[in-house]
Amino acid sequence: MLTKFETKSNRVKGLSFHSKRPWILASLHSGVIQLWDYRMGTLIDRFDEHDGPVRGVHFHKSQPLFVSGGDDYKIKVWNYKLHRCLFTLLGHLDYIRTVQFHHEYPWIVSSSDDQTIRIWNWQSRTCISVLTGHNHYVMCASFHPKEDLVVSASLDQTVRVWDIGALRKKTVSPADDILRLSQMNTDLFGGVDAVVKYVLEGHDRGVNWASFHPTLPLIVSGADDRQVKLWRMNDTKAWERTKSIRVWDATKRTGVQTFRREHDRFWILASHPEVNLLAAGHDSGMIVFKLERERPAFSVSGDSMFYAKDRFLRFYEFSSQKDTQVIPIRRPGSASLNQGPRTLSYSPTENAVLICSDVDGGSYELYVVPKDSVGRSDTVQEAKRGIGGSAIFVARNRFAVLDKSSNQVLVKNLKNEIVKKGSLPIAADAIFYAGTGNLLCRAEDRVAIFDLQQRIVLGDLQTPFVKYIVWSNDMESVALLSKHAIVIASKKLVHQCTLHETIRVKSGAWDDNGVFIYTTLNHIKYCLPNGDSGIIRTLDVPIYITKVLENKVFCLDREGKNRVIVIDATEYIFKLSLVRKKYDHVMSMIRNSQLCGQAMIAYLQQKGFPEVALHFVKDERTRFNLALESGNIQIAVASAKEIDEKDHWYRLGVEALRQGNAGIVEYAYQKTKNFERLSFLYLITGNMEKLSKMLKIAEVKNDVMGQFHNALYLGDVRERVKILENSGHLPLAYITASVHGLHDVVERLGAELGDNVPTLPEGKVSSLLMPPAPVLCGGDWPLLRVMRGIFEGGLDNIGRGAPEEDDEAADADWGEELDMVDVDGLQNGDIEAVLEDGEVPEDNEEEAGWDLEDLELPPEVDTQKASINSRSSVFVAPTPGMPVSQIWTQRSSLAAEHAAAGNFDTAMRLLSRQLGIKNFAPLKPLFLDLHTGSHTYLCAFSSASVLSLAIERGWSESASPNVRCPPALVFNFSQLEEKLKAAYKATTTGKFTEALRLFLSIIHTIPLIVVESRREVDEVKELVIIVKEYVLGLQMELKRKEMKDNPIRQQELAAYFTHCNLQMPHLRLALQNAMTVCYKAKNLNTAANFARRLLETNPTNENQAKMSRQVLQAAERNMKDVSQLNYDFRNPFVVCGATYVPIYRGQKDVSCPYCSSRFVPSQEGQLCTVCDLAVVGADASGLLCSPSQIR
Q1: pLDDT tens for residues 381-404?
Q2: Using an 8 Å Cβ cutoff, are 352 and 366 in contact?
Q3: CA-CA distances (angstroms) from residue 225 to 157, 245, 531?
Q4: At what angle do helices 1102-1117 and 1084-1096 cross, to 10 degrees?
Q5: pTM
Q6: What does the alpha-carbon distance between residue 838 and residue 826 come to, in Å, rounded to a whole number?
Q7: Which end of the chain is less enclosed by CB atoms within 10 A, N or C?
């Protein structure tokens, strides 16, 4: 049983297949009717109007209708296109068991537990006949597929066949009124239109189902006595033929196969009217399945193919399309299903064919085809047989057989003798051909290529479960087909792309261009080498592709017939040419073929070829968008004119501004009458003449604010005063005039203002506010003459409306008259620049060439020869290189270099991995310093953005310009040594806070230091240890000074400080300090210990030595401690960096992955209190501070 589709739902009581579409209706015990697409596996719709279980459901053969009958005594007719119930037929008095449409007349037959069968006319929506006669529930009723008969089965142990010929005659020639009157009585007495033809008695229990054979005069019935009976009928009688059980083969009268589900009962079985499909409904859903596989076994070799069909091996030649029968092959003898040929393997040199099937759990037969035999002989040649999962030819006269039980492969010769054995590298359940001497082994989730000679795996790949494999003609690529995916890989199984399909993949073949053509249940599709795919055409029935030659697809259908389908390959050849950068081919295809459609435009846009898409498009809006995307201002202007909408002009202005094409920006602003933007444009381009015209326009429009702005931009003070005066702002006008020293105006205005003259603030120095003079005046940005992109020159004459080129128009002024009529009727003709179609400056169009850097341009040398006579030599646009920051990060695992490149994210990840650092707050300013310090900035000229330049470490003039050095770093080791000296000095002088700050700054900088040699690496690591000891010691000493009221803790901290690894002068000071503290606290014994240690260091300072001796003398008189300290100097210990308690040798501890300070186990997972960076106990790979560590 081959399950095609399964659902999980409430109990399924009724099923009906659609005759044309891949749909099935399932009616549920819950009252819901589901409409499923069993090919896609999706629920299309659900209909929920019945009250209680729906036991019967049926699709109409040609109308978009279906009928349902339920336990609510209602029959409902639905239209699935309108998603609703059209009407309800009432009349039955008990549960309705089945409903069915007549294949020709507008009738529905229904059976019910009220012991009647009713026939309804669904067009007039009336009951036209009631069939009475059964005396128990009627379990089913159905029309005969051709004749005027109805068969019904009932729990009264009978099957009845009814003749409805009279009903048909009445429908065809409507009867007179008397007959119509009799219709009224039908409901009460049962009509005369249908009479019982036969009553079939023979079952011992109630009959559940009965059905006509679609073509033969047979009836099949099934009953509670667990028997299936076959009845034969003729015009006069019907009689019992045979008893048998389950799914069976009527010719042999034997059960073929039984299917069971654990814990589920089956309720309904339905068969598809057209194709080989069955469906069964059970307690928890339904399954759609096939009994037998329909894929023919075939093997293609060069121009020919061998395939198995109806007990014969056949031969087909693609070039001549000749199909011949070769030899008969053995028919499977066993009674079970799916025993036909599964796969076929062919050896052309020996003319031998291997046929594998599932007989005996997997076996093969070897036939040698006689050379002359294109035979009709019916004598079955005695084949050589053997057991094995799959068998394939691996060489001229050797074939491999898979022995699944031992996971071995047996290599045999044509006499069927084992030549060699070998175990496989993966637990394979099938083997396929992979070139001479190689096998492709398939496991559940992977495939591998195995070399039988050398016994090595040449490649393996994880894939979904692979069903079929197809090698390309040159054996360089392989397509691995699974149920819903296609994986394309190289001959060594290096993955190239994966395609996912929702509908099941059926077959495939490679065409001569290296495109994989494949079929799903309902489409022929293509897959390009880069993974792009698309539909070539739809299919009405599934086919199996055998070969693709140019635009012909050769295939076998499910009947085993050869078919040739002609396809249109233009689309995928076009895309392939784009992928392979065969631009001349693309050009000729655009010129000669009818490629168009939204999908193609979207594809070209997505792949970065908007300028090619331009030539397919007629719609102006789309053309405009594509032109902007490809930077083709010329076409954008033409389209904007056609569309003539404000928004499009605005977007054109933005793009033109981006390209520095001031002329078109001006034109676009003029079209939208956007005076503010125009004024500002004239200001930044320094076009004072036009600015003064803008002032006049504002005046004409009586736009006071616009006038004032323009006067401000022009730096025209008198004009500003005049505007303020005219608009009634006399005080402002007065102040403006007096500040700018226009005394004549000041006097006049002062007289007008009289007593209201505003006073100027005292002691303020005024500064002149004038617009800056532009550095660059006027025109468009300078343009280089570049090589035209292959698509531009070549396509100009195809696309529509591309203006002719006119070199001389390069200086043409852009713009259009502003139709601004002033009061005196003066037309503002000054801002004149009417754009004629032919006057588009050619240079602007060439801007588009910049977007095509990835084209394979001809070598530079040739281009220069060609252009010596032209006005100037052609500039070949350089391809953009990789940003330096990217080069720095690609090559480096050093956090400092990532930070310098501005890649803080990866720098933090590296530090976290190498040193377990989690707290990056102290490192933030260092990161920023590194980044800014490794770049410098150049100002080109005022209107251009600042250029950032990378500063490299170890750069020299003799180095190649293409080789990038690592970034220059602002921190280096010698700086740290200086800092260390300063910190030592601060410690000596007792400035502990300052010293601690310096030591912490060193420990925070070390992760971002880079040194060159291994020796320096060791020095850096040594520095970490030194600094860590000081940080810990100083933290304890500062803590001690805070504790005024806890003398015991003060003594402990002073004692621990002496166990930090300090420089000798500092150790002496620490010892002296501890001795003093303990002596004052009357702990003479401990003080004596410090005095002894101090004397052992041979102190150079006489005071220290003298004091130590005095303490020793005092202690010898009284060798005891007043208070007990947590301090045992005889037992070696380290101090916990967080709790400042001793961790004696042998006790458990955890350490910081960066500074290696030690902590009590409870501190694990906390932030290290010494370095304030890393997490205590974290895993880390260690400090990486030199490229030499990586090499």
Answers
A1: 678 888 887 899 999 889 999 988
A2: yes
A3: 10, 11, 59
A4: 140
A5: 0.57
A6: 29
A7: C
